[in-house]
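User: I'm curious whether this sequence folds into something compact or stays loose and floppy. Could you predict its structure so I can see for myself?
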Amino acid sequence: MSAGSPSVRIIVDGDPSRLYRQGEIVRGRVILVAEEQEQVKSLKLNFLGTCISKTTRPFYVSGNDRDANSLTRREYREKTNLFNIERTVLLGYTLGPKKYSWGFEFKFPECTETRHSRWAGRGSRYSRESHALPPSFHLHTDSPGGEAIVSYYIQAKLIRRGMREMKRATQVLAYHPSLRCASYAPRITPRVLYNQTWKPVKDTRTAMDKVLNKVSRKPTTRASTPRIVPTLYYPERISPGQNLPLSLSISNSRQGNDDQVQCHLDSLTVIISTYTTSMCGNLFSQPEDNVTKHVTCISKHDLNQPLPFDTLAKLTTNFRLVDDAECVPTFNTYTISRHYTMTIAVGLQYQNQKFTVKATTPLEILPRIPRADITGQISDHHDEVPIEPLPLYEATEGCGESAPDYDTVYSLTPTSSRPYSFADIGGYGTPLSTSASTSGVATSISELERPTYNPRATWYL
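Assistant: Here's the prediction. I'll summarize afterward.
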């Protein structure tokens, strides 16, 4: 900044790292310090929500595809405003050398204001119409220079008369959407896996044997072999920190099978996959970056847990998503989208045979539950120890008897206690009693523990 150039700064009330939600108000001040007289053309404040996608692609030359990695790369960048609220602070004004301050107040809107054309042709993963605000988001893609950014900020622009540079100041705000649910309890969805029906024992009879048995109506061992149909129970929507219950039930679709051998749960694997896509460019060239990440949350083997037929068995207890920077709520905006899937693999064992039931389901991660609502929830998990609340504080009357003097209690010979126990400590004490009394040590000298000195001891204050 050159000498005499004005400076612009934005200060937000409260904690600058505060996490804002839908409908909340942002208050603060914009400060302008002028070192000399300034001819101000305009001073404006903009409250913006933006969606920025960046990527690069190599230049391919016909006949030189093998050298594509060494060539320069073409940069693509697209910026779309989710909303833009503007306030004019000054317009055509002359300011003297002084420090100026103006207050401002903005409110986070409920949804975006921009609409994309229906001819954009960006696919079903991206929104075209107005939608709820996505959370603050920043991700580096696998392409060199690739980024996907959703940001919210307040920007001040000072435009002066003449050929003078424009001054800017920006204050970034963190935003997280609100949870719009009447009940926070996850809704369990059953899924019958008919296509994964398991026949543990293979039928080794020939076609002729099957015909002869049908004609003669002879009983066969085939009736004793169950046909296992698994059913998975899982939530499709979950919030970070909330219990994610998974259950399984198996049924025998072959009737008249009373002497069933019990199945066992052999293994359990749960994988959560993250898919992030960002697109930028124009109608004819729209490069898209895809970032995929797989996280194994549960991996258990050799469980040997009995699994009766027609009984709901819990696969997980107290399984929760970690509320960190990776656990971003599911969203899709104009050029960026993020969604999740959950893969459940359950190993079953019937006698000496094993079979794996596997299913992949979409998982929508909701915004986190407010802390005040989490505190009010009562845990209903059988494996968790109930927490007893602390007793309420009750004020008690102070005792009229003064505490004995430290030197008197720990002295090795009987001495008289001093009436001014705290008067010698820096002069801050006050006399507790004006009458001196003589008291002796009740414990014999042989029972007292003499202090020892250890030069290697470490003291922590």
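Summary: The first helix runs from residue 207 to 216. The two ends are 48 Å apart (CA to CA).
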